[in-house]
């Protein structure tokens, strides 16, 4: 298996760094090929801008990013830094995002990696998303750390259920592009753990990685569950954390996380 880890933390000796190193060592020992994109070490430019769409623009007076990305991809004009990351994505069977939970989401540099690397024409295009996504057949997962206890990320916790918080990544990036999405791995408040507890967390992550083939992906409704308006059909019971079915009189209060 070919594994790409996109690592987004400014301190290599952080617990995120330890989780990344554990993944590299565990997967390599198991016979897999592993490549790491260390975004801070790469000096990754986070902002998508006009420099990412070289050549003669379709409209010199207005930057339409999606159209220009598709043009650049079709004309083989992709800038070298973006092309290098796209080649890694095309190569991998498993994509892992390794990042600290900052402001209930990814660090800006990782969002910028998505904005620039998962460009229209390379990672998606009209009619090629979700079930027909251009990266279908691959798997993806999040490994993250938090600054607060895991109890705060339970359904009744003040921070909200973790898979709800990760919906923009799980559904809006991974699933949108066609990936099968594996359950996330979270290291809860590692800064407050003892050395022994931190090692137990690393060992748990290694075990998870060695058992990926036995780990069912998260559930997402297939295209057949949606009508022409791309809303759940009447009679379809919503089974993902950010969806419910108003056509059947359901409300968010009826939602359950049991099937997520």
Q: Give the structural class.
A: alpha/beta
Our Rg estimate from Cα atoms comes to 19 Å
Uncertain spans, ≥5 residues at pLDDT below 50? none
The largest sheet, given as strand count, sense and whether it forms a barrel, is:
6 strands, parallel
The shape, in one word, is: globular
Distinct helical segment count: 8
What is the string of SSEs from the N terminus onward? EHEHHHEHEHHEEH
What percent of residues are in strands?
5-15%
Mean pLDDT: 91
Task: Specify the helix fraction band.
Answer: 25-40%
Number of strands: 6
Beginning-to-end CA distance, first to last residue? 26 Å
Summarize the structure.
The protein has helices at residues 15-29, 39-42, 65-74, 80-91, 108-117, 162-165, 167-175, 195-210; strands at residues 2-7, 33-38, 94-100, 139-145, 180-181, 185-187. It is of the alpha/beta class and 260 residues long.
Description:
- By secondary structure, the protein is of the alpha/beta class.
- It has helices at residues 15-29, 39-42, 65-74, 80-91, 108-117, 162-165, 167-175, 195-210; strands spanning 2-7, 33-38, 94-100, 139-145, 180-181, 185-187.
- Strands 1, 2, 3, 4, 5 and 6 form a 6-stranded parallel beta sheet that branches.
- α1 (15-29) runs parallel beside α8 (195-210).
- The model has no long low-confidence stretch (mean pLDDT 91).
Tag the structure with descriptive keywords.
single chain; 260 residues; alpha/beta; six-stranded parallel sheet; globular
